[in-house]
Specification:
Length: 225
């Protein structure tokens, strides 16, 4: 089916419109890598590890955001999320530098991957969860299993992308997730996956619930920040 769709609607570069791929080599050269920064204070940090002075008992242990949220990366991520072209997720994964894959494999060899879930209604409307698509490709590259059903997103709220103010985003994310008691403590080390880190409110809330329910370590990976 994907080959038929590619024939009828050939991919175009999100940066310049060139036919044949979602991100051409020329536009790929303009992409800026984000660099390792603490998820709490956004200052430089070794491999993205949360600074000891910034660490919270139920907070993230670290964050790796691969690209700066600008230019062609911003366009690709918006296309995946809002125009439902989830095939572009693989293009993003293929742009992750080899050195970073080596780092990820070293750090997360005993982790399980878990994509941040969507509310059931939004999942039905969109037809897929962009975080799940990214997690599938990351799972293959890191040879790590993908956990299912850890968090329950039972309450439908305003999407974080529709909220402009930081404090309103943080408030909107509070109490967003419940936890499946059936899976309690089954996964001590969890690697959360999502597309974009803005305030980080959603992923921090997810980490808090996971740690309250037995997770010893929770890190996060996003494609951009």
């Amino acid at each position: 089916m994907s080959l038929i769709l590619d024939f009828l609607f050939p991919p175009r570069c999100e940066g310049c419109g060139k036919l044949g791929c979602y991100i051409c080599a020329k536009c790929a050269d303009t992409i800026v890598l984000r660099g390792a920064r603490c998820p709490e204070c956004d200052r430089m940090a070794i491999d993205g590890m949360t600074h000891p002075v910034c660490q919270r008992a139920q907070g993230l242990d670290g964050l790796i955001s691969v690209f700066a949220y600008s230019g062609v990366i911003k366009k690709v991520l918006k296309t995946i999320k809002y125009r439902f072209v989830h095939h572009e997720a693989e293009s993003l994964i293929n742009l992750i530098p080899k050195d970073l894959w080596i780092l990820l494999k070293r750090h997360f060899s005993n982790f399980v991957i878990y994509p941040v879930p969507l509310h059931e209604d939004r999942l039905k409307w969109r037809g897929f969860n962009q975080a799940e698509k990214l997690a599938e490709f990351i799972s293959v590259r890191l040879q790590l299993p993908v956990a299912e059903g850890l968090l329950i997103r039972s309450e439908k709220r305003t999407p974080q992308a529709d909220i402009s103010h930081r404090q309103d985003r943080i408030k909107n994310a509070k109490g967003l997730f419940g936890f499946s008691s059936i899976l309690k403590s089954q996964y001590p080390s969890i690697l959360l996956i999502d597309d974009v880190w803005t305030t980080g409110a959603t992923m921090k809330e997810a980490a808090k619930v996971l740690k309250r329910n037995g997770a010893a370590k929770v890190w996060a990976i996003t494609m951009a920040r």
